[in-house]
Amino acid sequence: MESSQANNVPGLDYWLKWKVLVCALIFLLPAAVAVILLRKRTSAGSNPLNSNDLWVPCWRNLNPKWLLFYRAIAFVSMSFLLYEVVAAFGFFVFFFYTQVQCSLLLNVHKLATSSFYGESKKYSKQVHQSFRTMLALTWFDNNLVRKANSRTIFSLYWHLELPLPIIVYETCGGAVMLTDIVFWGLLLPFMTGENFQLTLLIGCMHSVNALLLILDSAVNSMPFPWFGLVYFVLWSVAYVVFQWVLHACCFTWWPYPFLELSTPWAPLWYLALALVHIPCYGLYVLLVKGKHAILSRMFPCSFVRAPMEKKHA
Question: What are the transmembrane regions (predicted)?
Fold first, then answer.
């Protein structure tokens, strides 16, 4: 059996076909552009990501502990759901983009809860008051911010060199939209058969992930800029490279039919997958912008609008 599987492993001629090279360019060129943009932002020294945005709610009278409590519940719920999927289908499920994305979503809640629980516990009351004060100062006079108390600024604007939870959050926003749209709009209507049937567990896996992240976005004050598309693209490219490496080494089966390279439509499939990242990420950007636009009008006294959103309104 092992010898037959080894004989089915694609050879060098398979990887040198023009279709494979075109597919490689389709996802490597966006990855190169993403790396260039990321290096430019890093070299420019601009770091708009604020670690305090991770655990400060956008609701005026909501204590940050409630946000951390929700994320702990979301982490446990998603862990249980992922455990049930692994128990039912085995670790083989991690070859699929959905389960990898759900693991990434788990890290959002885990990192957000564990990394900042100590800071939230120590500065919850102080930061909650300082946040509103600093917002007012930023909106009316940026020069006053420089004259503010240094200890307040340090406790409120404590920057991380690499705020990983916020980067993972922006990546998950696009990945959640991509997995659920592809599943409910493409896989389920057109590829349901003997080898693929919708069950309650699979349906929950492709709906609870988006629900938990959207509820988190409704409470947190984290921005969702278009630059996060860079992280989303790099994440998807890493998954495709992972599948290609597996296919080159030992596996001849593809988890998704549109990743198959032997079909004549492979370049079109890869091009469509590359382009669909833009509307999927843009959909979550619209959700976050809609949150600020709608909730700030419905609850003007309770909802704290971020300075960035207020500036562009």
Answer: 18-38, 68-97, 227-256, 268-288
